Amino acid sequence: MKRVLIIGATSAIATACARLWAAQGCTFFLVARNIEKVEQTAADLTGLGASAAHVHVMDATDMAAHQGMLEHCLSTLGQIDIALIAHGTLPDQKACEQDVNVALREFANNGTSVIALLTLLANQFEAQRCGSLAVISSVAGDRGRPSNYLYGTAKAAVSTFCEGLRARLFKVGVQVTTIKPGFVDTPMTQGLPLPGPLVASPTKVAALIVAGIERKANTLYTPGFWALIMLIIRSIPVTIFKRLNL
């Protein structure tokens, strides 16, 4: 019976992952901002077979609250077998360009708060000398594009941080998995003009994530064809890339 911590537990991808783990009889510690949504999620997971689903209300950008959350989690679960960091926002790039406060707030949502949580959780996993730490980054972090470079910068920071963290924690038996979804049909992307054939469902992405964590994947593109797409995009020379409207 795995003990699973999910931060950003009411996001579409996180909920879909939790449903798969619930079918395995896992015990959950669910962290989210909205008490009604996270309690409903907990009830759904219990109905699907979870051994138990505990909730904790926290805004992930409130970094002063991270330590208390972890202490509550450990007193409840005893140990963490899997931790999934899944919170984040999709910012308005134009708004970020016009207002530095908006830019910094969105960077905190998608970058700084994630790194803060990873730092705290890494120390716990290092003390345990076991477990899997997974974080949802994005293909957007693979190269800065004019349409979303604030978001991409935050995700690039998270991905690079995870790369170093992976090498550190590997030596004590802890796995770090960086998850890089492409376009996913979630409330966060609703209304965006996305290319239909490249859009995946949260259920499909979640199945890939759960399987990837189980096999101790290092970097996980979801779906896998995004690895090839991003290889091509990274290979475009700067002289050409800066002229593209991506």
What would your notes on this structure say?
It is a single chain. The chain is of the alpha/beta class and 246 residues long. It is built from 9 helices and 7 strands. It has helices at residues 12-22, 35-47, 66-77, 93-98, 100-128, 149-170, 202-214, 225-235, 238-241; strands at 3-7, 27-32, 52-57, 82-85, 132-136, 175-181, 219-222. Strands 3-2-1-4-5-6-7 form a 7-stranded parallel beta sheet, sandwiched between helices. Helix 1 (12-22) links the parallel strand 1 and strand 2 (27-32). The protein starts with a strand and ends in a 5-residue tail after the last helix.
CATH architecture: 3-Layer(aba) Sandwich
Largest sheet: 7 strands, parallel
Query: What strand line-up does the widest sheet have?
Result: 3-2-1-4-5-6-7
Secondary structure tally, helices: 9
What percent of residues are in strands?
Answer: 15-25%
For this structure, the CATH topology is: Rossmann fold
Q: Please tell me the overall pLDDT.
A: 96
Helix content: 40-55%
H/E series: EHEHEHEHHEHEHEHH
Counting structural domains, the number is: 1
**Helix/strand/pairing class, anyone?**
alpha/beta
Tell me the radius of gyration.
Answer: 18 Å
Overall outline: globular
Number of strands: 7
